[in-house]
Amino acid sequence: MRALVVLGSVLTFLSVFAIWTERQALNTDDWVSTSGRLIQNEKIREAVGNYLVDQLYENVDVEKELKEILPGETKQLAGPVSGGLRQVAGDGADQVLQSSTAQELWKSANRTTHEQLLDVLEEKEGTVATEEGKVTLNLASLVTNLADQVGIGASLAEKLPPDAGQVTILRSDQLKTAQDVVVAVKGLALILSLLTLLCFGAAIYLSRDGRWVTVLFCGIGLVSAGFAVIVVREISGGIVVGQLVDEESVKPAAEAAWSIGTSLMISIATTVIVIGVLFGVAGWLASPTGSARSTRRFLAPALGEHPAYAYALLAIIVGIYFISAPTQNLRSFLTTLIIAGLAAFGIHELRKQSAEEFPDADFGEFFGRTKERVVGAVKDANIGERASKLRLPEMRKPDSEAPTTEVVPADADDARLARLERLATLHEKGVLSDEELAAEKKRVLND
Questions:
Q1: Angle at the Cα of 87 (from 86 to 93), degrees rounded to 5?
Q2: How far apart are CA 127 and CA 121, in angstroms?
Q3: Model confidence pTM above 0.70
Q4: Which of 84, 232, 258, 397 has a Cα at 20 to 30 A from 201?
C-alpha cells in the first residue's frame, strides 16, 4: 500500500508535465489563446516591437521610400527624416501592437505556424521535409502594419523580401528529434493519469484496516506532487531563460513568456492540490477522531434514509464540471469518471460506517443533543456566576475600622450555608481563631 501511494504521487508529478505538454504544445487552440496573452504583456510587446522596427529598416530602404513620398525640395530631408522616423516607429510600435488589428494578425500568424508545426511533427503528407525545410513564424503582416502606421507602407508588402519578419521555430536538423518526442509524448498524459488513479485506488482498496489513513496519505501525496511541480517550474524557468537568451535586454520578455507559457502548468498543479485536499477531508471524515465522529453522527440520518440525494449531488457536481471545463478530451473524460467513481465509493463506505456506528440516529436526536449541550452550557454559566456572588469578602480582624460590604445573595439559605462552610474551612486552616469563628457564625445566623 505504501509503495502504491508513493508510486501514485510520482506518477502525479509526471502527469502534470505530460498534460501541460499535450495541451500547450500539441493543441492549436490552447496555443493561440496563450499567444494572445503573450502579446498583451508589456515586456513582450516591447521586444516584438523592436524586432518589427529592425525588420522594417533591414529589409526596406526607408530613405528611398520617403524620397518618393516627399514633395519637391523636401526630398533632401529624407535621410534625417528616416532616422527620426525610426525613433518614432520604435516609440509607436507598442501602441501599434496594442491595437485589435495587430493582435489579430499576431494570433493568426501563430495559428498558421502551429498548424504547420503539428503537420510536420505528425509527419503528414505534403508538409515540410525534415531534411531541407524549417518551420517559421511569419510576422511580415505585422511589419507591413507598422509601416502603414508610420506612413510609408502604401506598397510595402510587395517590396518586402520573402524572409522579412520570419522567426525560425524549428530547423530541419531539429525536426526529426521533435517528431520522436511527439511520438513518445502523445498519449502519455492519458496513460500516466489513469495509472496514477489506479495506484491510489488499489492502495485504498487493499487497506481494509485503517483505510482512512491510506486515503489521508493519498491526499498528502497529491498535494506534495502539486507543490513539487510549482517548485520545479520556478527553478527550471531561470535555467531555460538563461540557456535561450543571451542579451540582457531581452531577458525580461523571455521571463514573461515563460511565466505565461507555463501558467497552464500552475493551473493543473493547483487542480491536483485541490483534489489532494478533498482526499484529505475524506480521510479525516472516516477517522476515529471526535470531530469526525460527530460529523458522521450528523450525516448518518441523511445517508441512511436518503442516500440518493448524496449520489445526485455528486452527479450534479460532475455535470457542472463537464459543462464549465474549457476543453474536453478522452483523458479528461476518463479522469473525471474515475475520480467520480472514487467519490461514489467513498460515499458508500461513509454510509456503511455511519450505519454501523449510529444505527438509530435521526435528526431529532442530533438536534436534541445539541439543545441539551447548549442548555447545559447556559446552566453551567449561571451556576458559575451564582457561585461567584456567594463568595465571602476577605476576612478582616475585629479591630478593623473598614466597613464591611456584603453581596445580597439570591437564595438566603444557600448563601448562609455556603458562608458557614467557608468559615469552617478558614477555621481549620488557622485563619480564624475560636473566638472569631464563634463571632462570625453568630453574625451569619443572625443575618
A1: 85
A2: 9
A3: no
A4: 232
Please report whether residue 65 resides in a domain.
yes
Q: Which of 147, 165, 184 is the last residue of a domain?
A: 184
- Listed in sequence order, the DSSP H helices in 188-244 are 188-206, 211-244
Measured CA to CA, the distance from residue 325 to residue 268 in angstroms comes to 12
For the ranges 90-99, 165-174, 380-389, 409-418, the lowest mean pLDDT is seen at 380-389
Task: Look at 413 and 227; give whichever has higher pLDDT.
Answer: 227
Do residue 207 and residue 105 come from a single domain?
no
199 and 175 together in one domain = no
Residues 289 and 437 both lie in one domain: no
Q: 146 with 230, same domain? A: no
Q: Please give the sequence-ordered ranges of beta strands (E in DSSP) within 63-189, or none if there are none.
A: 135-138, 166-170
Same domain, 155 and 301: no
Q: Which domain holds residue 438?
A: 392-447
Q: Which residue has the higher pLDDT, 25 or 151?
A: 25
Q: Is the pLDDT of residue 266 over 70?
A: yes
Q: Are 89 and 56 in contact, with CB atoms under 8 Å apart?
A: yes
Task: Give pLDDT, residue 400.
Answer: 47
Strands (E), 98-175: 135-138, 166-170
Q: Say yes or no: 347 and 430 in one domain.
A: no
Place of cell 469552617: 424
